[in-house]
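Subject: Sanity check before I submit

Could someone independently write out the C-alpha cells for this chain? I want to compare against mine line by line before I put it in a report. The sequence has 254 residues.
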Amino acid sequence: MSLMSNKTLHIATYNIHKGLSCFNQRVILHELRDRLRGLGVDIIFLQEVIGAHSRLAFRFQNWPEISQYEFLADSIWPDYAYGRNAVYDHGHHGNAILSRFPILRWENEDISAHRFESRGLLHCEIAIPGWEDTLHCICVHLGLFRRGQGQQLQAMEKRIRQLVPANAPLVVAGDFNDWRGTANRLLPDRLQLTEVFQHAHGKSARSFPSFLPLLRLDRIYIRGFNVKHARVLQNRLWSGISDHTALSANIERL
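---
Independent answer below. Compare away.
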C-alpha cells in the first residue's frame, strides 16, 4: 500500500474536464498523469473521463490512442473501471475509478434525471490486502439542477442500502455540483456518511473554478474510517489542469 499501515488508504477525486485545459485549447493528459503519479494515491475517483472521441483525436496530435482511463492508469493503477454515461456519435465519456488493488466487481448505474444531462454512478468492490471485507467505492457526477440532484441522491441512497452492508467500509466521492450543501445535510443523517473536509476543516472544500475556487462542488464521503488528513491540490503544479481542483485524503479504517 502507499502508506505504512494496511489500515490506511490515500484517495483522491478529480473532475478532469475531459482531459483538456480550462478553455479547451490543449490536451493536458500527459501533465495530469504526471501530477496524479506524484500523489502516490491508492484509489482515484475521476469524472468527465473520455472513453473515445474521434473529433478530438483528429484535432490534437498528442491525443492518446487508448482511452483516457487506460492512459492515466498506465502501470501505476493496474485495475480500473469505467462507467460510460454520455454517448454521442463521435464518442462517449463518464466516470472512472483507478485502483492499486483488485477490483472484484463493478457496475455503472444510470441516474440521469432527464435526457439533457447523462449522469452515472460507478460502484466498485475492491479487495484490500489484509481486510476481511471488501471496500465499496462509488464515483458520482451529479446534475446541475436541484430537482435532479435530489433524485440522484435518492438513487444513491437506495443502492447503498441494498448493496453495501452496514459494517462494510465505504467511500463516495466525485463532483456533486452541490453548492447549496444539500448532500451534507442528507448523507450524514440518512447513511451515516462523513464528509472528510467538513470533518477535518469544518467545511467542505472550495473546488470550483480552479483559478479562484468559490463553490464547494467536489466531495469525499466516508463510512467506517477516521480522517487523518485532507487537502485541496491548489498550487502552480495543478493550475490550468482542469476547471476543478483535485481533492485528496488520508483515511484510516476503524
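---
OP: Matches mine. For the report I'm noting this point. The chain has one domain: 10-253.
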